[in-house]
Amino acid sequence: MEKTEKKENRYGLLGKDISYSFSQGYFAKKFVELKLNDHSYENFDIPEISEFKALVTQRHLKGLNVTIPYKEQVITYLDDLDADAKKIGAVNTIKFTKKGLKGYNTDAYGFQKSIEPFLKPHHKKALILGTGGASKAICFVLERLGIEYTYVSRTKKEHQFTYKELSKEVMLAHSIIVNCTPQGTFPNINDKPDLPYQHLNEKHLLFDLIYNPDKTAFLIEGESKGTKICNGLKMLQLQAEKSWEIWNST
């Protein structure tokens, strides 16, 4: 866990192996710009979610963001859930209140605001790569936007595709592809989901939740076929700002 000067108003990111995180730098810069000298943002890197209980007893904690792999696991330890977080089944923002810990999901907000400018009338069906906590927020938004979706995973499950089942017909029928897996994240920048990229065309939209590198191998493949592409940076910035709004609401 990184050493950070303890301030009167402490915020942080809960996760595992998160030294790469965007959030700490983002909020540190924000606090400087807002002249909030009594605010700090720390990385709470814990090996097991069971350590969460002790972590939240630390003094002056006001709010946490949550990342892989604890967005679902942390729910057990919370006292209350926002309505959207309850529907989604994943939490990425925790507010410390007088009544206890309340969980929210700002990933959904960030994703919706990020993808909406790219959507066209022909974007009616989506493939979601990966089935973790982040993908739940993506499904929630797609349902709200009236876009059908199907999960893609490595193992065969009912109502899902495996990567081997992604035929030309399937690829052409699903013009949105959202990567919710960590494949392609720095430093493994040559990794990418095992898709038949040759079937992509200019009608496809590829959205990658990864933001480092800013153009993953997945997005590069799509761009070479004329697709529209979007990485996860805008989504991350938007969800961070929504978290800040929640922490400061009464």
From TrEMBL:
Domain of life assignment: Bacteria
Keyword Amino-acid biosynthesis (UniProt): yes
Keywords annotated in UniProt: Amino-acid biosynthesis, Aromatic amino acid biosynthesis, Oxidoreductase
Pfam families on file: Shikimate_dh_N
GO molecular function: NADP binding; shikimate 3-dehydrogenase (NADP+) activity
Pathway the protein acts in: Metabolic intermediate biosynthesis; chorismate biosynthesis; chorismate from D-erythrose 4-phosphate and phosphoenolpyruvate: step 4/7
GO annotation, cellular component aspect: cytosol
EC number(s) stated in the UniProt entry for this protein: 1.1.1.25
Ranges of residues in domain Shikimate dehydrogenase substrate binding N-terminal: 13-94
GO biological process, one term: shikimate metabolic process
InterPro entries named among the record's database cross-references: Aminoacid_DH-like_N_sf, NAD(P)-bd_dom_sf, Shikimate_DH-bd_N, Shikimate_DH_fam
SUPFAM superfamilies from the UniProt entry: Aminoacid dehydrogenase-like, N-terminal domain, NAD(P)-binding Rossmann-fold domains
Name the UniProt record assigns to this protein: Shikimate dehydrogenase
Protein species of origin: Flagellimonas aquimarina
Organism placement in taxonomy: Bacteria, Pseudomonadati, Bacteroidota, Flavobacteriia, Flavobacteriales
